[in-house]
Structure of histidine kinase:
Amino acid sequence: MTSGWAGETGVALAGIAALCLLAAALLILVAARQLRRAHQAQAAHRLARDLLKASPTRPLLIHPDGSLELDSALAQELGMASSLPALEALAGEDHGLDRDDISRLRELLAPAVLSGERVETLVRIAGSATILDVRGGAAPPGSPPGTILLWLSDSGTAAAERSELSARLAATEQAFDALTHLIEAAPFPMWVRGQDLQLALVNRAFVTAVEATDADEVVKRGIELVESARADSARQGAVEAVAEGRPIERHQPATIGGERRMLRLVDVPLPGGAVAGYAVDIQELEDARLELDRYIASQRELADRMTAGAVQFDPDRSLSFYNRPFAILSGIEHEWLDEKPEFDRLLERMRENHRLPEVRDFPEWKAERRGWFTSAEEAHEEEWVLANGDHLRVVGQPLPDGSLRLIFEDRTEQVRLASARDTLLRVRTATFDNLFEGVAVFASDGRLYLWNRRFGDFWSLEESWLAEHPRVDELVPAFAARLVNPTAAARLRELVRAATTERRAEQGRISLADGRHFAFAAVPLPDGNALFTMIDVTDSSRIESALRERAEALEQADKVRTDFVANMSYELRTPLTSIGGFAEMLNGGYAGELSASGRDYVSAILESVARLSRLIDDVLDLTQGEKGEVALERERVDLAGMVRSVAEGMEAAARTKRLKLKVAVGEGTGSVLGDSRRLRESLEHVLRNAIAYTEKGEVRVVTRGDDGQAEILVSDTGPGLTPDAQSQVFERFTRLGEVRGEAALGLGLPLTRQFIEAHGGTVQMSSQPGQGTNVLISLPRGSR
């Protein structure tokens, strides 16, 4: 019994303990919640306090009993305690509120306590210009009834804020007006569409573009800037701008002022669903773009016609253009280049084709050329010498957009020509210095440009001074000091001037004081310069002088000989006439009958007299012809009869040498007007020479003629003449070969030419050794 009770008692105590623990736990939870709420209340209190301190408005609490409770900041500003017994305690002489303002405030508080009306007034702080704005009313719920809460703030701050807001409003209105005027004065159309996307506002440029009367007409009629068959097409940009919430730009043509123009249309969405837009005329840009495209096409076509290779890379270093000369120069197929390879790949391909110079570090070399894309220099120029000896001039030009243009010029031929030119210049210099002549070249301004060593030696001029390229005016004093006649130096200056400015060549001679003589010449050159040459003619001058003296002596001797022959001919004619006369008397029997042998002797004397008389006449004719004293008798001469008569007279001489003498008289032979005796003698001289110099064969005489002239051709089968001999046969007293008789005297052909030329005709000879000789006599017909 006892143990049972004890057990029950233990269970009860355990239950009580559990309940106590549960109650303690609940109390702890409640205490924790209350503590958390207390902390939150403290935080809220601190926040409210801080907000109150930061606020520009200060509270004033008026209790129902009339006592005052001031904010600490307000009490400090008024110079009073935080608690005051009545409203009048706020008054003061140099601090506190103005008494009149407090009276007016008290009047306003009574209705506020009774009916809860709002209190709004202004009060001044005594002794200052500060004005406080007082606003308030019944205190919030929870306060005792009749409690009034007033808020005091410095009205100066509010006024400043209102002034600032007014200024901002005025500035905004001014800016809006300026923007409105700017939009109205804009040279391009601008518009605003409402929420229904219909035109609401347009500017003056829009009205002008659509040729309307005013903006109202445009808005009322809904005249769109861009014509379209679809009504909503003109508003398509506005629809997209509203849907996407961003500006939409498009290009569309329109008719402006009667011209078709391309416009750039921009629609900008505005808050509230409205859309603003504007249009810019880009026709000139389109024209410029098309012109640029045509220019680029023409440039590429021109590049294909260039002899230099051209290639261009984009900023990403891919090939964008190449011309045919580059493909040929690089040895790369067009198909591979059309794939637009990268810059490095192109260089590597050119290296494989041996079209790059050999370098030690190719990657570094390639990287340096890759740096041309971003180089600050305007151009890079290099000379590439390839392994096969080709010379390339490479110009790399970085472009503003980051691309690169390369130009390849094959200068192999130019380098070779330059080398050849240098060789020629060295040869020319060596040639100049080794000439016997003194050579100098003067530029168009008269300055000495080139000279050889002998030129300086002739004038005893220092090489160092000539290297300064003096003008010809500076050389004249040096020339004058070396000349026999110093004034002749000015002549040399005039020669250079004439050759350079007047392009006239001149020459002459000068004599130096040391006894030397020079022949000089100034010749204009094609490049505008003048070539001045000097050659030492001292020896030739002496020889020339000697030859001149000899020629004068020979002329004098020839004159003496001619006069002697003429005088002797006249002197011989008188005794010869006597001999002939006496011989004719003997032959006529005046001295008695002669024996047969005597008659033969007399005949021989008469024949010799006739022959000697003929020779004397020939000599006289020859000497008179040289003096121009040949007298001709003009009569009609039958050439056919004269030829036959002369041929018959020469038959005996031809038979003696067993030659055939043939005569062929043409139908056109006719007659001429001239001296019959002189013409006959001319033909006799030619035939006599032909028979004398022909040993076998024949001698032929052929005549022919036309309306203007008659010709007599005498040909033989003799040994012929050399060109040198032909030039001598018409000189008097010239004997060719071993021949006897009158032909050996050398009078016949000179007399023939003299007589024929006196008639206005010509005598021509053609001959070749071993093929005979032809003599052609041409005579004009003449007129009475």
Notes: The first strand starts at residue 57 and ends at 62. The CA atoms of residues 201 and 783 lie 114 Å apart. Residues 1-15, 739-745 have pLDDT under 50 and may be disordered. Residues 2-54 form the longest helix (53 residues).
